[in-house]
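From the methods appendix. Each design record in this collection lists the tokenized structure first, followed by the designed amino acid sequence. Records were kept in a plain field format so they could be parsed without special tools. The example shown here is representative of the layout used throughout.

RECORD:
FOLD TOKENS (54 positions):
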């Protein structure tokens, strides 16, 4: 139970970080190459989160 909760918290904190990075992209502070890597990581997190669902 605690492990799932920790996983969910990690997932949401990563989502928050993605939002911040997306704002940086709009300001031109991050390259498209970095963005592609970040999106790849986000997809893996989303897949992990789906594994928690019954």
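DESIGN:
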């Amino acid at each position: 139970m605690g492990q799932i909760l920790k996983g969910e918290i990690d997932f949401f904190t990563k989502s928050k970080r993605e939002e911040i990075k997306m704002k940086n992209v709009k300001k031109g502070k991050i390259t498209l190459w970095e963005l592609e890597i970040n999106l790849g990581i986000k997809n893996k997190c989303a897949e992990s989160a789906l594994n928690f669902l019954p």
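APPENDIX NOTE: The chain has one domain: 1-52.
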